[in-house]
């Protein structure tokens, strides 16, 4: 994918930041054998830096890449990329358990200034609950009162109930800084026509050029 993008007029390859960690999802039907052969999961953040030439490495030496594991749930964590432009992107998989989620969220580098900030991933809860947690773990002192959830108009996850019916929920969204709010092209787009390849739908949020 990165190679194909360089043919579209880009001067360098998009930068790829990856963290692989062990996680094996549990099954609702405990009597079935697990279909998973690979217990690894990857959090991947890709961004384009026009300041690098085509021979540059995938990781810019001036970018800071942090992995924040959940202290009580090894299968959850956050990949943070602090870019040279000042933009910070947090790619997070938040635990279902509120106590574990609080521990993870308290270790994420939330913004302390007006630089651009984007948090996205598998939040595993509605936006109101997540924003309350963020305010609690930061004590509302480090700019989190300037963070806004950008929600979708369509459900983003399809779960299967015990009776075989689908349960659609809105638990995937973006959390962005106030400095980016005026640049958002609303609404966030949900790709709900991907077939049965995941219990989550891909979502897309576009920003206008500054």
Automatic annotation (TrEMBL):
Gene3D superfamilies: Endonuclease/exonuclease/phosphatase (3.60.10.10). It comes from the Eukaryota. InterPro entries: Endo/exonu/phosph_ase_sf (IPR036691). This is Endonuclease/exonuclease/phosphatase domain-containing protein.
